[in-house]
Design a protein that fits this description.
Number of helices: 4
Number of strands: 3
CATH topology: Arc Repressor Mutant, subunit A
Structural class: alpha+beta
Number of domains: 1
Shape: elongated
Strand content: 5-15%
Radius of gyration: 17 Å
Helix content: 55-70%
Largest sheet: 3 strands, antiparallel
Amino acid sequence: MVDAELITSHSQEVRRGSVVVASLLMLRRPGYGYGLLEALAGAGIAVDANTLYPLLRRLEKQGLLVSEWNTDESRPRKFYQVSESGEKLAATLLDEWTAIGKSLQTMESATQKGTS
């Protein structure tokens, strides 16, 4: 049996890459950090705020997101939206993610057939 801690560690590695793609996809429409946290969780992608906020800043610094402060409400919020470069990267990463998923499913099917 595989140790629960080992499963958690490897699951985090898989999710780490998916958070970038998911954030870029979700931010095709403007959104702020906490709203993105909730949307990701609702989509089944749990991410900690201490992970997401630095990621958003890094993606912005890389030119993949643009941001704007909304001061219309009582509490100012920084809204992010994917840039043109971010949109292109999201499409490329999503294609790669999909291809990897298909490859893994093919490998799983082939190995299951081989053990029957």
